[in-house]
Structure formats: C-alpha cells, structure tokens
Amino acid sequence: MSDTLIRCLSKSSSFFDDKAVEVPKRIIETNEAEKESKQYDTGAGCVYVFESNTDVLYVGQTGTSLRKRARYATSKHIEKDWWKKVDRIRICQLGNSADRLALEMLLIVKLQPSVNKRPSRSAINCMQLKF
Question: How far apart are CA 96 and CA 45, in angstroms?
C-alpha cells in the first residue's frame, strides 16, 4: 500500500473515532425505542460500524437513519446471522453522500470487517494512490 493511502486510512479512522457516537443496540432492534433513537441519529445520513467484542463485523453507510437502514426489506441487518454477535454500534452523522461513501470505503479498507464483501481483501492489497 502506498504511503498516501496509509495516511488517508489513518486520518479517516481518527475522524470516525472523534465524531462517532455509540448507539445502544435496542435503539435499532425495538419499536419502543423509536423516539429515543432521534437523539443519536438525525436521519440525514451516517456511516456506521457494527462490532463484536473481538471483531469489526460490518461497516456501512445510509442516506437515512440507521434504524431504517437496519430494517430495509432488501437487506435487513437485524435478521442476519451475524447480528447476534453485535455488541457495539457506532455512527458518525454525515449529510453529504460523497463524504459518506468515501468514509465508508476508507473504513472498510482500514478496519477489514469480517462481514463486508466489498472491497475484497485482494483488491485492498492491490490499491495504490498516486498524487
């Protein structure tokens, strides 16, 4: 990996760590917590990380609230087998879609979550940025 990419990965991870808030899992899972969820997630878009005690499981982004995204009919996070392993949820509010997509991709490369399918580890190893 190039030095430039390594610096980008480090800065993106630090940015996320500084801006992210931890969200209780019940906020995503239960209908009763819908009002409470607004204090964590404005619904304007965010990048999110699902973690277990030992692993980063999934990094994603949404242009809506994480609560809605986790329940989308086409890909319900809360119905996946790996969801049971989620112990920690962190989100970083970002309203701009390009910012969300860039941060999501950089975090996937940096954190190498076990559930994400793209980019593949072989694609990550081949990445080179030249400026």
Answer: 8
Q: What is the pLDDT of residues 85-111, one digit of tens each?
A: 999 999 999 999 999 999 999 999 999
Q: Give the N- to C-terminal CA distance of the chain in Å, as an integer.
A: 14
What tokens were used for 98? 């390009």
Q: Which domains does the chain have, with CATH numbers?
A: 3-118 (3.40.1440.10)
d(CA 121, CA 46): 24
What is the DSSP annotation of 21-71?
EEE-HHHHH-GGGHHHHTTT--SS-EEEEEE-SS-EEEEEEESS-HHHHTT
